[in-house]
Amino acid sequence: MNKTLKKVLIFILALIAVVLVIFLIELLVPRQSGGPDLTSPAVSDSPSPTPSESASPSPSLSPSPSPSEDGAVTTEETADGTKYNVTIPEASASYSITADSALFTHSRENGSDLFKSNKDESEYLRIDFVKGAKAAALAPSIMDSYINYTNFEQSGQNYIDGTQISGETVTADDGKTQVTAWLVDTDKGVLTVAISLSLSDKASQTPQLDKLLSSLTINE
């Protein structure tokens, strides 16, 4: 074997040895991952969207109640019963009245205050305001809104029972129920105070209604 061929063989053997060493190094030493792990799901760098403020609306706030044109009512408890303080903006006036809740129930509709007996619906006290009216002119027709009467009497100015408040007074009945109304003039209209009772129970209902009337005060 000549020297040239011997050098070639040595080179080839050396090359094979180097390749084997590199292969063993790659096989035995763990590969450091510098690139992305293709087996794991990709994580997006973009931030997740934040929920819109309108997604969960804040609770709406209801406006505070305010007195209507018909007026406003406040109550307070007293030794004699519940005292109702009523303002009438259109009349520039106010009034108060005290009712025993065991005898009468208060309700309000279209500016009218009604104190109805808990035992007999024909027994009640009702207070209304008629804007721009005059008592003397209103008196002849006022009973049409209370009762389908067969008897009618207009007796002029009289004090409301148990008070120093006077008004044009009218009384009417249909043979079963009697209604008496006092029409009190104010600067801007007429305050009507009407009581109704059953004629068959007049003796027992009159004292209850008189006590209710006697607590009435009017301020202008």
TrEMBL record:
The protein's name: Uncharacterized protein
Q: Where are the transmembrane segments?
A: 9-29
* Sorted UniProt keywords: Membrane, Transmembrane, Transmembrane helix
Q: Where is the composition biased (Low complexity)?
A: 44-59
Instruction: Please give the organism.
Output: Sporobacter termitidis DSM 10068
Stretches the record annotates as Disordered: 36-85
Q: Does the keyword Transmembrane belong to this entry?
A: yes
